[in-house]
Amino acid sequence: MLIKSALFDLFFKTMGWEMKGDIPRDIPKSIVIVCPHATWVDFPIGLGVRSLLNMKIHFWGKKELFQGVFGWVFRWLGGYPVDRSKNQNLVGAIVDIYNSNEYFHAALAPEGTRKDVQELKTGFYHIAVQANIPIIMVGFDYVNKLVHINSPFYPTGDFESDKKVIAQYFAGIPGVQKSWIKNYLAN
Q1: Residue 135: beta bridge partners?
Q2: Is 163 helix (H, G, I), strand (E, B) or coil?
Q3: What is the pLDDT of residues 142-160, one digit of tens each?
Q4: Quick one: DSSP state of residue 109?
Q5: At what angle do helices 123-131 and 159-171 cross, to 10 degrees?
Q6: d(Cα 72, Cα 69) in Å, to the nearest integer?
């Protein structure tokens, strides 16, 4: 898996982006959630962040990205295909991957799409609870071209309570004005 890349560093910096925060190196496992998922540019920005962090962080992506001519590229970059069809124990399968590795970090966009959504997909939360790992919240501030990396958040197992903490974090990042944030903070 390609982690450190001068090309990704250059893209990130040439596009005028900066980072604020870090992922503690003493945490062997985490699930990294990135919001907003607004554009295809999220992906190369994320690769730039990973490269600058110089940290092995995989990513979960819909299985369709891993098919066809460019499928090998996504695998080479550290991707894991996810089959989002019904009747699958996807959370359990991902928890097994975390449990079978001593060191494993992976990122995903919990919105599940680039469109505005009313709620986040909750798989990331159940994975964190079942694998007993922290959630690292990463916000893409497109207004100021700043990637915000929050300190690890350890979920309590009470999603109704924890979703407000997650929404409050992302609500504080300029440009992240999503319907799900308003819904979570209103309840």
Answers
A1: 31, 153
A2: helix
A3: 889 999 999 999 999 999 9
A4: -
A5: 120
A6: 7
